[in-house]
Amino acid sequence: MKIPGITLSVCLLLFTPLAAQAELFNEDDLAIARDLRASALAGNGGFDVVEDLTTRIGPRMAGTEADARAVAWAQAMLEEAGFDRVWLEPVTFPTWYRDFERVAVVEPVEQAFEALALGFSPGTEPGGLVAEVVMFDDLDALEAASDDQVEGRIVFIRNRMERSRDGSSYGPAVRARSLGAQVAARKGAVGALIRSIGTSTNRFAHTGTMRFDTAQRSIPAAAISNPDADQLERLMGLGEPVRLHLEISAETIESYTSYNVLGEITGSESPEKIVALGAHLDSWDVGTGALDDGAGVAIITEAARQIMALDQRPRRSIHVILFAAEEIGLWGGRAWADAHKDNFENYQLGAESDFGAGPIYAISAKVADEAWPVIEAIQAELEPLGIELGRRTASGGPDFIPSAPFGLAVVDLHQDGTTYFDYHHTENDTLDKIDPKDLAQNAAAYAVLTWLAAQSPIDFGSGPGLIGR
Ligand SMILES: [Zn+2]
How sure is the predictor about 214, in pLDDT bands with cuts at 50, 70 and 90? Predict the structure, then answer.
């Protein structure tokens, strides 16, 4: 501080960003954002919400009796939390029920595998089927195979998902689950198995949905646990024929109606303009869906509760949307986009929490160019939570993907997902995997983002200008 030049440059560094922010947000709004951040960090992150959901309702597969109970639970929970308005919007979708699955090696040795049928898998005949296995490195290798290699066999796709902080290893790996059975069916296979799309080395399988397509024939399909997939690869490596027994009992239902559950904090100045927070209410039928996506339900509810505890209402409205039937095909997100697409100019931002309960480390956004400085100013208030500035593009989370063709502005608050896929879609997705401290960091980030987005002097540009971005 003794050399004037250094003092000057330090001052410039310190004051330039603050001056820029001051033009965007007034001091009162920033002070409230900081209070929200501190108060949410000191809170429970909504742990009470995910605890109650996973205990009282438990697994809540879309289209089951538990789904209907979850909708009633969510409506009551949002009403009790003090939202100004709570309502339901219908979502109609095909769904699927698991009865049981059995996968076992019968030749050259006998061994039962840990397996879970994939969503929309047809059942086998009672007693199942026995066939020789043909193994492929990945979906592309199966696509390239001749019908002769596949016909009458059980296809096994062995691609392995590796851990990654941002979850980017999921997309390439999950193609085998989404499409493997359809491709195998086209080539005459009698069954399809995949290595679980997950990173656990424990002996349980990761379920998940296949693409539902009434026009395409499918075949019975299941995921086997990673250790069993390793064992099957070694058995194949012996060079002798490997035969498996596969039996699945399951049923597809063409049409069921559930509901997106919505709560509104009504804006004080521009109530027709909306900041939309999302999470999905449904889960897989194994585990209690604590990470996927009870945590998201907790995080966005707690962010809204923090804002409702203020002395004033935000300028714009805030919606909490608990989406239906995400797991089996983003049906709640599709219905929401369809119901609101003519009104997207009024939606400030969409942001869904659906990546477990790990801490948030970055913010990315797809907004109009003139609104990017607002994202930078919001990031400055997230910095003390360890959140850096990410990319100038975002998806908004799975349930906002169907809104992309209509130009919804979206934000991603990226969670550390290094261990998320150890539990994803398994029996082991249970409440004990959630650290309340991380949940509180998430809720603090969503509270700051939501408050400042609702107070922003600039709209984020939803509408035709963001289509195709
Ligand atoms: Zn999810």
Answer: confident
CA of 338 from ligand 1 middle (Å) equals 20
Distance CA 168, CA 380 (A): 26
Superfamily of 21-84+266-466 according to CATH: Zn peptidases (3.40.630.10)
Dihedral of the alpha carbons of 149, 155, 160, 161, in degrees to the nearest 10:
120
Between CA 187 and CA 229 the distance in angstroms is 22
Q: Residue ranges per domain, the chain?
A: 21-84+266-466, 96-253
Cα 289 to ligand 1 centroid, rounded to whole Å: 8
- In this prediction, residues 174-192 reach a mean pLDDT of 96
Prediction pTM value: 0.94
Instruction: Tell me if 21-84+266-466 shares its fold with 96-253.
Output: no
* Amino acid 217: pLDDT: 84
The rounded Å distance from CA 248 to ligand 1 centre is 25
Nearest partner of 46 among 308, 424, 406, judged by Cα: 308
Q: Which numeric CATH code is attached to 96-253? A: 3.50.30.30
